[in-house]
Write a structure and sequence with these properties.
- The structure is a single chain.
- Strand 5 and strand 6 form a beta hairpin.
- The protein has 2 domains: 145 residues, no CATH class; 83 residues, Phage tail protein beta-alpha-beta fold (3-Layer(bab) Sandwich).
- It has 259 residues and is an alpha+beta fold.
- Helix 1 crosses helix 4, helix 4 packs across helix 8 and helix 9 packs across helix 10.
- Strands 1-2-4 form a 3-stranded antiparallel β-sheet. Strands 3-6-5 form a 3-stranded mixed β-sheet. Strands 7-8 form a two-stranded antiparallel sheet.
Length: 259
């Protein structure tokens, strides 16, 4: 049982850190802006259907078909080519961009679920030559909003009734489940997702590195209660992200000093 609890508390720490990053990246109003066949968005818990409707309004394109997974989305990116931007917003759902003879976007066709990336558009969109880099907080937000594969045959697949699910939902639902195997699978999914994506690793390292020990300790206590010290110790021993390991050790000292 101790192994299960350690894995669960590791997931709690990831959730607490991600929530802190989300608060730091919070914006006062949603932004959806189309220009030069690229999309800029700043969204927190926005309706995916309303976002697509706004894209249709700005581009003059007809939105055809139905959204397979009607949900709220959070995303923050700037001047991303339209095919990649739509893929980030829709996740696993396939789509096609239909262009007219003059190069204008005529329609966005929503297709069925897909196991891989989106359908190649009939004309590739130009890539802006000077697209600004995303902030670490925006990368963490996008990571949380991204669909991730669930362990095959796991109870997580049964709970979500799909082989993929939004990472934020996996953490929020999986870590609260009474079954230790569900909590463990939720944590493994989050850890594997973070460790295998260099940009997420770097964003987490910088985001966590910018947090002071007091705030991080408070977040851990609010998320895990009496397990906060245990989480910090586990992360310090197991994480592959050096700045996170250093911060976890500092949090351990801070929490230990309060006893």
């Amino acid at each position: 049982m101790r192994t299960w609890r350690h894995l669960a508390t590791t997931g709690c720490m990831l959730a607490a850190l991600a929530q802190g990053a989300a608060r730091a990246a919070d914006t006062p109003a949603p932004v959806v802006r189309y220009s030069n066949d690229a999309l800029t968005v700043r969204l927190t818990h926005a309706s995916v259907t309303e976002v697509l409707d706004e894209i249709g309004r700005q581009t003059g394109a007809e939105i055809r078909g139905q959204v397979a997974d009607v949900r709220e989305i959070s995303a923050d990116f700037e001047a991303v080519p339209l095919p990649e931007a739509i893929h980030r917003l829709l996740g696993t759902q396939n789509f096609a961009l239909v262009y007219g003879e003059k190069g204008n976007l005529k329609a966005l066709e929503l297709l069925g679920e897909a196991a891989s990336g989106p359908v190649t558009p009939s004309r590739p969109a130009p890539v802006p030559s000077t697209a600004p880099a995303q902030s670490p907080e925006a990368i963490v937000l996008a990571w949380l909003a991204r669909p991730v594969p669930l362990p095959a045959g796991s109870r997580l697949v049964h709970i979500f009734a799909t082989p993929m699910a939004n990472l934020r939902q996996v953490l929020e639902i999986g870590l609260r489940n009474e079954d230790p195997s569900v909590r463990a699978d939720a944590v493994r999914t989050a850890l594997q997702s973070a460790e295998t994506q260099p940009e997420v690793r770097m964003a987490l390292a910088q985001t966590i590195g910018d947090m002071d020990e007091a705030n991080l300790s408070n977040m851990l206590r609010g998320t895990a209660g009496e397990h906060a010290e245990e989480i910090a110790g586990l992360v310090a021993a197991q994480t592959k992200i050096a700045p996170l390991r250093l911060k976890a050790n500092a949090v351990l000292e801070a929490i230990g000093g309060d006893h």
